[in-house]
Every structure is written in structure tokens, then in C-alpha cells.
Amino acid sequence: MTTDTLAADRAHVRRATAIGGFAILLWSTLALLTTLSGDIPPFQLVAMSFALAFLVGTAAAVVRGRGVVAPLRQPWPVWLLGVGGLFGYHFFYFLAFRLAPDAAVEVNLLNYLWPLLIVLFSALLPGHRLTAGHVLGGLLGLAGTALLVTGKGRGLSIDAAYLPGYASAAACAVVWSAYSVLSRRFGHVPTEAVGGFCLATAVLAGLCHLAFEATVVPGAMEWLAVLLLGTGPVGAAFFVWDHGVKRGDIRALGALSYATPLLSTFLLILFGRAEAGWAVWAACALIVGGAVMASWDVLRPRG
User: Fold this and answer.
1) Nearest CA among 259, 294, 277, 263 for reference residue 112
2) What percentage of residues in the chain have a pLDDT greater than 70?
3) pTM of the prediction?
């Protein structure tokens, strides 16, 4: 392979990693937008948001001159992975908080094991290997996240009564990291297929809503929040993430994903829904340092 070809390949990987990283920025708005969604029940919110995500993906495909139906003709393993990843994650996420209502800190921390698991699981992919930088960077990010969610004097505690909730939170991390890593094995599947996964997720979430929740009619602010969710963190984010994990550096994306809870906290502080403190700034140093360390082989210039 020539020097020019290698340089072009590296540039392509950097570009794809940057595109996938945009999902991290979008996901950082999820907490803030969710607080603006008012009293809309979780599964109703997922159903509405993912239905919008399907419409956004379909519109984007039409504008780009891409087919809409053809990308949906995929074998069942692709559908199992796509729907299992999107719906499975959100199902276990809400189940975890329902089963452990007084252990939000522990549940949140267990959920945010998924960036570290992506870094570790990526070693199983052909042509990939973990370096000390990837592992140490991932652990620094985990430490920063732990500090972020346990700040202000709050400690971690394990209550046996909430073990099913903890297990569900851990399932969140495993499901999303497995979905992200295994998506790379289906690199031939066009990103437009994610629209179909969003539609299936909306349908399944709608059924869960009918079974477990009472419907709430949104007001003007709630509709705006749903619109922003469906076009951003629960919409475009899944499409750019799909591109990133398939064609970018998945180890770097895993480490960079620790920025999600950090940026999310900053936005909550900015809009007056959380308070800043030493834990936030210390977590910032750990997370940013870990992300740079884990993605250094992608970020550094090469001759």
C-alpha cells in the first residue's frame, strides 16, 4: 500500500470518527431535553421520539437521492442487532430506574460502563488490538464518570433489594456496547437501515407504553422537546453513530463517549438545572485526559 493510500485511509478514519463523535455531542443534550419534556412517560417519549427519528432518516435519504425501501431489506441477524440495540438499551434503561428507584447514582454509573466496554470489546474485532493507552484512557474516563455521578458527598451503596435494577443497568451497558461493536461486522449494511430500526423501536416502545403507562397529552413546550429529541439525540445521533462505529476508530469513539455525561452535566448547569462544584472540574480533567490518551493513535499526526 502506497504512502498516499495510507494517508487517505487515515484521513477517512479520522473523518468517520469525527462524524461518529457528533453523536456524543447530540447525546449530551438528552438529559436537558428530557427535563423539558415534562410529565410524558418514558416509553411514550421513546415511541414519539423514535417515530420522528424514522421520519428524519427517511427525509434525509430522499434528499440525498438514496433509496428508502431497499436498505430495509436486510437479513434477520441485522434486524435483530439493530432493533435489539436501540430498543433493548432503552427498555433495560427505564426498567433499571423502575426496579431501583432510590439508587439512581448507582444505576447511572453502571449504565455508563458502556464506553469502557466498547473499548474492551473492540479487541475482539479482526485487525484490532488494545494498547495500554486504550485501557488506561478508558479507566480514567470511568473514574471521571464515577466522580461526576457521586459528587457533592454522595457515596455509592449497594442495596440487595435493588439487585434486579443493578442487573438491568449493567444490561444497558452490555447491550449498547455489543450493538456498537457488532455493527462493525455489518459494515456493508447502509446507514439508511437505521431508520427501519428506529421505526421498529417506536412500535415496540408504543406497545410497552400501552401496557405499562397512562398517556399524557403534550403541551407546547413538551412538543418542542419531543421534536428536538427526535431530530437530535434520539434521531440523527443514531445515524452518525452508525457511520462512525462502522468506518471510524471504534476504540477512540468508546473512550470519547465518556464526554457524554460530562457535557450533559455542563448543559444542565448552564440552564440552571444543576450546580457546579469541584467534582465537575476534576471529572472534566479525568475524562478529557482519558479520551485523549485512548484516542492518541488516531489524533496524532503521522508521516
Assistant:
1) 259
2) 89
3) 0.84
